[in-house]
Design goal:
With about 300 residues, the protein is an alpha/beta fold. It is built from 10 helices and 13 strands.
Length: about 300
């Protein structure tokens, strides 16, 4: 049975974009990882589009040194637009980069101490509301998008939600892993209770092969939990550890995303996403397919 009390809507999303992107060096020495494009849209654009589709209004970027271009991307480019107008070029292509004035907020994470710390840096802007989190290097492709599916689930059960997917057992130790409880009899079995969470477990200690995949809806109490959070796996302040402490005090569910996820924080995932999306684009699919055939002989 689900509790259908009226929920506070999810109006705010936090995008932690202050990481160093070391797996992509030297490309990410001067360019943020989140600005690397899959074809012609930077990763951050895909995440912001997904947030807007889910009805989220305010985008909160947790940035750091060298990340200014992410904010520029969502600003008005006056000279560019004036020149394009003079040359009678359409500005439609820039439409997704426009956010309403006041709907983009940035806070700085002065030292990259980990994802949990990055989220905590946004506490003053998040305030006393439930909020979404997007890790922009995880590209989620689906119809509806991943966050829209999660907001639907949130409207059913409230509380905290994370998006999960199944991976082969030998990959679990690279991720946050859930201990699943009962599966709910709604949304086609896509909603499961979460009874525990562990960050980067050893394969033999992993409670399942369901990994947390880059999208969250959390209650504001997580900020207080993060406040006292010690360093965890990798010497970083882990969001997973703070969420684990909330289980049992608030509802906690996992949503199995009906769609595809590409790990664009890794080079192989990035190449896969580029190819997969190019093969689906009507303006280039035929040429790309022919090119792939030629390349693989
Ligand atoms: P990742 O670990 O995937 O990103 O963090 P990274 O540290 O930038 O990349 P590598 O491992 O060195 O290649 C997941 C998300 O959390 C953000 C990152 O920007 C990324 O979006 N993050 C991570 C922060 O904002 N601050 C941190 O201290 C750590």
């Amino acid at each position: 049975m689900t509790d259908k009390t009226v929920r506070k809507p999810i109006r705010k999303a936090v995008f932690p974009v202050a990481g160093l992107g070391t797996r992509f060096l030297p490309a990410t020495k001067a360019i943020p990882k989140e600005m690397l494009p899959i074809i012609d849209r930077p990763l951050i654009q895909y995440a912001v589009d997904e947030a807007r589709e889910a009805g989220i209004e305010q985008m909160i970027f947790v940035t750091g040194r060298g990340k200014t271009s992410i904010v520029e991307h969502f600003d008005v480019a006056y000279e560019l637009e004036a020149t394009m107008r003079d040359r009678a070029k359409t500005l439609d292509v820039l439409e997704p980069t426009r956010l309403k004035p006041g709907n983009l907020v940035t806070v700085r994470q002065q030292v990259p101490l980990g994802l949990g710390h990055a989220i905590w840096c946004a506490r003053g802007i998040v305030g006393d509301e439930p909020f979404a989190i997007f890790l922009p290097d995880e590209l989620m492709i689906g119809e509806p998008g991943c966050m829209k599916q999660m907001v639907e689930a949130y409207n059913e059960v409230g509380g905290n939600l994370i998006s999960v997917l199944e991976v082969p057992e030998d990959e679990v130790s690279s991720y946050g892993v859930i201990a699943p409880g009962k599966t709910l009899d709604i949304m086609g079995g896509a909603l499961t209770e979460v009874t525990g969470l562990v960050e980067k477990p050893r394969r033999e200690e992993a409670p399942s092969n369901l990994i947390i995949s880059g999208r969250y809806i959390l209650q504001p109490e997580v900020m207080r939990t993060l406040e006292g959070q010690e360093k965890g796996a990798g010497g970083e302040i882990q969001l997973t550890d703070a969420m684990a402490k909330m289980i049992g005090t608030q509802p906690f569910h996992a949503v199995t995303f009906a769609g595809r996820r590409f790990d664009c924080g890794s080079k192989i995932g990035f190449v896969e996403a580029t190819l997969a999306l190019a093969l689906e684009r009507p303006d280039m699919a035929d040429e790309v397919r022919a090119m792939v055939k030629r390349l693989v002989g």
